[in-house]
Amino acid sequence: MSRDGTIAIIGAGIAGAAAAHRLHAAGRRVVVLDKGRGPGGRMATRRGPDSLRFDHGAQYFTARDPLFAAVVESWAARGVAAPWGGAGRHVGTPGMTAPVRDLLDGIDLRCGRAVDRLVRDGRDWRLADAEGAALADGAAFASVLLTCPSPQSLALLAGAGHDLPGLAEVRYAPCWTLMLAHDGPPAPDAVVREDRDPDATFAWVARDGSKPGREAGGTLVAHASPAWSRASLECAAEDVAEQLLAALRDLVPLGEVRHRAAHRWRYAAVERAVGEPCLFAPETGLGFAGDGCLGPRVEFAYLSGLALAERVLGETA
């Protein structure tokens, strides 16, 4: 791999952002591409009508690892993150995407770019969309780092005739999320429900407006359990919203509902991880990072992205 070749990172979630930030700080040229409208991945904030906002993906993050704790401390000092709800929970401010945006500041980020093909060009790689059109202005990349969920990463690797051992073993649980605004009284607690019962309808219900930097009000985010989400995975979003709303009324006193919407996360939480900080093949320059490597925590995804960046830097030093 070329010492100073440009590096493509596919996926602008926390793992991709961590890798990009470290590589950029080391003086490497980095381009980050994501198929979404903005960065964040599952650290997501959805806008609704009347300036409503919902953190409909990751609800919070912990900082148990000393390295990540130092990063969170820096975010807190600059207003990018803040504690919420006790139990060591932190959130991005004013939304969950804020820490990812902070990491990507000053980095070449291209959203709305769905990469469907990796094309070998000598010792480099080029990126193409589903129609074969070149992406990233047709640039050649010495390395391509995949930080999207493993099924999507595996498809890209297979199309290029390559593999990363262990990646196919990763398993995810899906999640249907209900975003709700209502005119009733606010829930008495920030976290209304946290339930690990596999037969429960909801795994998580929280008052979104209780988070720092948000407008207070009757906004709730509810995550259906993995079992419920699997059983309803291919249902229409409006039908799911109606069913979850009916179930939520048994838990929370709701007034008139002003807004409701459901979002499906097909790859929400890792159930089986690789067990390694990252995967990297120096002979091809292909790598993978994310919570699929270490487990279902934001901080694990960050540490995985950082580990992959260090592997790349170590191989090209």
UniProtKB/TrEMBL annotation:
- InterPro entries referenced in this protein's UniProt entry, alphabetically: Amino_oxidase, FAD/NAD-bd_sf
The Amine oxidase domain, residue ranges = 92-313
Q: Which GO terms describe its molecular function?
A: oxidoreductase activity
Indicate what this protein is called per its UniProt record: Amine oxidase domain-containing protein
Species lineage? Bacteria, Pseudomonadati, Pseudomonadota, Alphaproteobacteria, Hyphomicrobiales
